[in-house]
Amino acid sequence: MSKASRRQFLANAGKAAAVTAITPFLASAPAAAAANADGPFIHHVYFWLKNATSKDDKAKLVAGLRKLSSAKTIAQFYIGQPAPTNRDVIDRSYAVSWLLFFKNKEDQDAYQTDPIHLKFIEECSSLWSRVVVYDSIDV
């Protein structure tokens, strides 16, 4: 076997091995993505208050979130505030965080139009200047 044909053989064998190794992952990727859509859905909301130093406004927002927690599709919730940690990667500029766990995306979608959620927005949106939402599903 000449050097050129040996190189070609090795290159082709390497490609075949790579395709063989990756094929099971490619075949299961759509199924995995579909399965993740049916799994837990995490909805994390960060609020910045218009009056950042107002304890009353913060208390009103927290009270509103506590009422909002009665929405039926919420599996679990947590109301938080910035922890006293300081590192370059930490953003402590928000006032309140609202962490929600839903059984699936459909429950989160229903929450978005739930009358309790809409009432919360109506009653409390005047308190915040900015809201950032991070939604996530299983990898």
From TrEMBL:
Pfam families: Dabb (PF07876). InterPro entries: Dabb, Dimeric_a/b-barrel, TAT_signal. Gene3D superfamilies: 3.30.70.100. Keywords: Signal. Residues 41-136 form the Stress-response A/B barrel domain. The keyword Signal applies. Residues 1-33 form the signal peptide. The keyword Acyltransferase does not apply. This is Dabb family protein. It comes from Chitinophaga horti. The lineage of its organism: Bacteria, Pseudomonadati, Bacteroidota, Chitinophagia, Chitinophagales.
